[in-house]
Amino acid sequence: MGHWIGTQLPDDAAVGLDGPVGSGKTCFVQGLARGLGVPVNTHVTSPAYNLIREYTIGQQRLTHIDFYRLVSLTRDDFMLFEEAFSGPRNVVVVEWASGFIENFAPEFLNVLISKETGDNVRRIEVSSSSPTYAQLLNKLSDYANADT
Predict the structure, then answer these.
(1) Cα–Cα distance, 5 to 17 (Å, whole number)
(2) Per-domain residue ranges for the chain?
(3) pLDDT score recorded for residue 147
(4) DSSP string, the chain
(5) pLDDT in tens, 23-59
(6) For a Cys staple, 101 with which of 40, 91, 97, 113, CB 3.0–4.6 Å?
(7) 12 alpha-carbon distance from chain centroid
């Protein structure tokens, strides 16, 4: 699912990920990175301790942010993350996005991942109130229905 969404995102996109620990947020980002064109030999990892990791894909950039350890934003935090969201051809993916991403991106794709019964079963809900992502959501609906 992450890979498919990565192939469909506009050049400048923001994606917010939420879900419990171990639900697969970083795994989703790994798939999304592959869909964007990040090489398979590039190890995409959680930036939980660094807060931000960046990957360059030709003229495009993937910025991966993790807000897990943040309870609130200081002024310095705000400035750091505001810079991470700037620049052309930049896809920003934020883990633990709720309560934070809307401070930096007025339009974003929201992905909620939850664990279902069974170790390897996940429910992924993708939504957005932005018209920017309407076409992607329509294609995603067709894609999901084709696999059932």
Answers:
(1) 13
(2) 2-146
(3) 55
(4) -HHHHHHH--SSEEEEEE--TTSSHHHHHHHHHHHHT--TTS-----TTTSEEEEEETTEEEEEEE-TT-SS--HHHHHHHHHHT-SSSEEEEEET-TTTGGGT-SS-EEEEEEE-SSTT-EEEEEE-SSGGGHHHHHHHHHHHHHT-
(5) 889 999 999 999 999 988 898 988 877 788 999 888 8
(6) 97
(7) 12
Q: Where does 2-146 sit in CATH, by number?
A: 3.40.50.300
**Amino acid type, 19:** G
Phi, psi for residue 139 in degrees, rounded to 5: -65, -40
pLDDT of residue 15: 95
Sign of CA dihedral 24, 2, 17, 148: negative
Stretch 49-74: mean pLDDT, rounded?
85
Retrieve residue 145's tokens: 């229905």
Rounded Cα–Cα distance for residues 69 and 51 (Å): 8
